Amino acid sequence: MRGGLPRGLKELEPALALAAVRALSFYCPRCGRVVEPPPGSRAVLLYVRGVLSLREARRAAVIAHYRHSHTGYRDSRDEQFMSPEERREYERALEARASCLRRGDLKGALEHLRAAREIRSRAHERRKKRFNKRAAELAKRDGLLP
Ligand SMILES: [Zn+2]
């Protein structure tokens, strides 16, 4: 566990966090080793909180690992998942933010940043969805998902 327990797990018993990580670990045939989900991962947190069942959390852990390690997710960019119009809007918002900062207009800068983040966040969700689909297909092929 890098740097101790992440935010959100701090109030949990370390033994509980560890048990959840163990319960969600799996053998990845592509890595040739047992993979443990990071203690601060969505799968671990939602499993510990009872939001996801063991089965759902395992599926989430497998898909997250496959997405990060066995698809082109890491090399992709949110910007690639913006429409040309969104891309223009995004760049305009970033330029407007920079211009506000140069003028010392902090409030304006924050508004433009918020607009840019909204566009980016939509693109990020699309990117994740696309790579999750690819990850699930690979994991199915490897027999890790039904
Ligand atoms: Zn792997």
Q: What is the mean predicted local confidence, pLDDT?
A: 92
Bound molecules: zinc ion
Report the span from N to C terminus: 30 Å
- Please give the share of residues in helix: 55-70%
Strand order of the largest sheet: 1-2
Number of DSSP helical runs: 5
Unreliably modeled segments: none
Shape call: elongated
Following the backbone from N to C, one meets helices and strands in this order, namely: HEEHHHH
The number of E-state strands comes to 2
* Residues in β-strands, percent: under 5%
Number of domains: 2
Outline the biggest β-sheet. Answer: 2 strands, antiparallel
Give an overview of the whole structure.
This protein has five helices and two strands; from the N terminus they run αββαααα. The protein has a two-stranded antiparallel sheet. β1 and β2 (33-35) form a beta hairpin. α2 (42-48) runs antiparallel to α3 (54-70), α3 packs across α5 and α4 packs antiparallel against α5 (106-141). The model has no long low-confidence stretch (mean pLDDT 92). It is elongated and about 55 Å long. With 146 residues, it is mainly alpha-helical. It has helices at residues 14-23, 42-48, 54-70, 84-103, 106-141; strands spanning 26-28, 33-35. The chain has two domains: 11-70, no CATH class; 78-129. 62% of the residues lie in helices and 4% in strands. Bound molecules: zinc ion (ZN). Zinc ion (ZN) binds next to α3.
